[in-house]
């Protein structure tokens, strides 16, 4: 009887061990289930968008780990004058070649529409290998660090271009593109916020450790990229978009007159020449809204690059009142991150109603705060400018996405996202270059920031408001 009772179930020690294990696992399994529910809500799991959201979170976490390692080596570990020289060298070796490579990224990826999952996985794996390569040089800050950093930058931007092209393929039913991009962007921001302090903690263990962490994250991202649905590799019906249409071409494609017209869109002249294929439409052919929106977003992106580099050195040399340099940078960085997250949330809530008006309004808001910061430079206004810059950049980009979805024909929409993202990255590089070259004068810096936004407003706001008044001949997407 005793033997039978002993086999009725697990003993007290085993039951206690299992209960303890469940308690210890609960925070992790519960968090994982909560993340999965959030990323897969409202049909995102069935469409595959949830997988892309998770992949973008992995991308953000890995990138911030590398940023922590580079910032500690290039910026924080040396005196200000030497740090400025190192960052200038970093820009010269990485950003200058990138300005030449960036225009190639979009067209190159355009030619590989059937391998988007492989392209995203390749960008992840390449960064994992480059992180290991950088781990040997990060302690010394030797020149061999910079080519690897350039490779990481190029791979990161290539991933961003492909990701922008993939999102339209994964929209759940009744899901707007602006809402989908809001979710993807917010996931990246949250992952960056979680990974940044982890990277800082690893940095205290040793300078290579954040890079080891980045390598592990990007390896996981390599496998996660292949879990995306196969439909992201489909290019059925797609064509390549051109950003500029020559002036002698019609703004709107029209069939050729007379008997040269054909239903297939070919033109045939009366002189018996061979028919020529209709050239793919450019962004100008869908109206001025998209181009003006792109100009406004370029101003926001240039401002972002400028503030990152200029304020990094300014606040290190002249910290905010009563604060250390690290705390001053942290205040501005957190303000910008919170503003970006708020802009993403507001963009999703607005559902891209009147995107032209939204872009013009937020550009004016950012310009106003920049002017105030130039005239009345203070701790509060610097933090406010960081927050407003993050808010307006996020909201303006989401509105641009909505206009591309609304106005660009479906067969070239994917290509248009790739080309526009490449141009915005180039604007960031230009802004960063101005920030590193400028003397560390607060009023001068804020004046230049206002000038960048004023230039964007002068080239875009009138066209945006005019387009909003006229309305669009294209159906709006909710």
Indicate the percent of residues in helices: over 70%
Say how many strands there are: 0
**Element order: H for helix, E for strand:** HHHHHHHHHHHHHHH
* Rg of Cα set: 25 Å
Distance between the termini: 72 Å
Low-confidence stretches: 1-7, 25-31, 243-278
Integer average pLDDT: 75
Supply the helix-strand structural class: mainly alpha
Per DSSP, the total helix count is: 15
Shape from CA axes? globular
**Biggest sheet character:** none
Instruction: Note the beta-strand portion.
Output: under 5%
Structure overview:
By secondary structure, this protein is an all-alpha fold. The chain is 73% helix and 0% strand. Helix 5 packs antiparallel against helix 14, helix 10 runs parallel beside helix 12 and helix 10 packs parallel to helix 14.
Briefly, what is this?
The chain is mostly helical and 478 residues long. It has 15 helices and no strands. Helix 5 packs antiparallel against helix 14, helix 8 crosses helix 13 (379-407) and helix 10 packs antiparallel against helix 11 (325-350).
């Amino acid at each position: 009887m005793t033997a039978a009772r002993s086999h009725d179930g697990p003993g007290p020690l085993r039951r206690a061990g299992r209960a303890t294990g469940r308690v210890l696992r609960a925070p992790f399994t519960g968090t994982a289930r909560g993340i999965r529910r959030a990323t897969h809500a409202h049909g995102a799991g069935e469409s595959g968008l949830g997988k892309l959201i998770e992949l973008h979170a992995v991308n953000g976490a890995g990138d911030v780990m590398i940023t922590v390692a580079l910032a500690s080596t290039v910026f924080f570990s040396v005196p200000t004058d030497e740090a400025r020289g190192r960052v200038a060298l970093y820009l010269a070796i990485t950003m200058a070649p990138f300005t030449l490579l960036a225009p190639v990224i979009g067209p190159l990826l355009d030619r590989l529409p059937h391998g988007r999952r492989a392209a995203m996985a390749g960008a992840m794996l390449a960064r994992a290998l480059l992180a290991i390569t950088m781990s040997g040089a990060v302690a010394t800050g030797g020149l061999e660090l910079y080519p690897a950093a350039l490779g990481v930058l190029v791979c990161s931007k290539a991933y961003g271009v492909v990701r922008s092209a993939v999102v339209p393929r994964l929209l759940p039913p009744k899901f707007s593109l602006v809402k989908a991009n809001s979710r993807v962007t917010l996931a990246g921001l949250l992952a960056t916020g979680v990974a940044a302090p982890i990277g800082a903690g690893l940095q205290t263990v040793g300078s290579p450790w954040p890079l080891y962490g980045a390598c592990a994250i990007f390896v996981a991202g390599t496998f996660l990229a292949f879990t995306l649905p196969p439909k992201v590799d489909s290019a059925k019906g797609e064509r390549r978009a051109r950003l500029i249409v020559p002036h002698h071409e019609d703004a709107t494609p029209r069939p050729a007159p007379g008997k040269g017209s054909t239903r297939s869109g070919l033109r045939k002249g009366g002189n018996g020449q061979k028919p020529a294929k209709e050239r793919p439409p450019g962004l100008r052919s869908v109206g001025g809204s998209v181009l003006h929106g792109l100009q406004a977003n370029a101003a926001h992106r240039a401002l972002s690059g400028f503030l990152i580099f200029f304020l990094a050195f300014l606040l290190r040399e002249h910290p905010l009142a009563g604060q250390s340099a690290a705390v001053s940078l942290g205040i501005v960085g957190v303000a910008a991150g919170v503003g970006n997250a708020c802009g993403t949330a507001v963009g999703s809530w607005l559902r891209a109603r009147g995107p032209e008006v939204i872009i013009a309004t937020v550009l004016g808001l950012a310009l106003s705060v920049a002017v105030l910061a130039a005239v009345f430079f203070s701790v509060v206004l610097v933090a406010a400018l960081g927050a407003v810059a993050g808010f307006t950049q996020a909201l303006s980009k989401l509105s641009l996405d909505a206009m591309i979805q609304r106005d660009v024909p479906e067969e070239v929409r994917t290509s248009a996202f790739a080309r526009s993202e490449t141009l915005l990255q180039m604007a960031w590089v230009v802004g960063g270059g101005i920030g590193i070259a400028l003397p560390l004068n607060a009023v001068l810096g804020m004046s230049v920031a206002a000038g960048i936004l004023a230039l964007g407003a002068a080239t875009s706001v009138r066209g945006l408001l005019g387009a909003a008044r006229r309305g669009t001949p294209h159906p709006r997407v909710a």
